From TrEMBL:
Domain of life of the source: Eukaryota
GO molecular function terms attached to this record: aspartic-type endopeptidase activity
Protein name: Uncharacterized protein
InterPro entries: Aspartic_peptidase_AS, dUTPase-like_sf, Peptidase_aspartic_dom_sf
Biological process per Gene Ontology, one example term: proteolysis
Amino acid sequence: MFFSLDQLKVAALVDSGSSINIMSKSLFDSVSDKQKLSFEQLDCSEIRLANNDTIKVTGTAKIKLYIETRGEIDIDVYILPVTSHPFILGTDYLMKNNVVLDFSKMSCQLNTANVQTHKRLSLEPNTETIVWARVPNYITLGLQGVCSKSKFSCSKGLLVAKSVVTVPYNRKVPVKLLNQTSENVVIPKGRTIAEFSVLNNEYECASFSDTIPEVQHVDVSETIESPHSKFTCSKPDYSKVKSLFTLPENLQETESD
């Protein structure tokens, strides 16, 4: 899996046998300070490796990195003086990001993706709007998934309606936003307004026939009951209308009605 740290492009090793994310000290030192969100030095901490050896931990850090299939994310890492690979992604990252490992293709794929605006949006106060936003190119055409809220939409006070969408050829999916605030909300281009999750066996779909009762044999009543009065709809009187016309003698009364 490839990712970028500022101008530095690195290939990460996905290790399902590691419960933590590991970064070598040399790689950590080469990362710019703006990518280092936090760092805590550990003086008396060790971890046990797969071969049962122990190694001292330099510290822990939160790093901001960019993954092409995910966008910009923050990740917690352990800094080790010596590692078998510069950057190792463990099960901590895999579980938090719903990564699926396909050993038959020797690949990994995310079950979630960011849904981002493709142009600047302006949402008026107390309004509900359906906007079109893009999913990444790696999302397969025709794939069905669920769009739900994102951290950015929550930070702006927006409500996102959870909905099932199908990825079309242009990869633009509808997102329903509710601006419940009393102020105009401006969303710049390229912001994540929703999260796309692949529709899998974790979701259960129910047919409408099983959940919504059908209405049959409807009788139209000419009487309307109310707590205060009773209204009766009588048959319309067409006598005044017929008096305005001259009807042929051979026209029967039933035909004139």
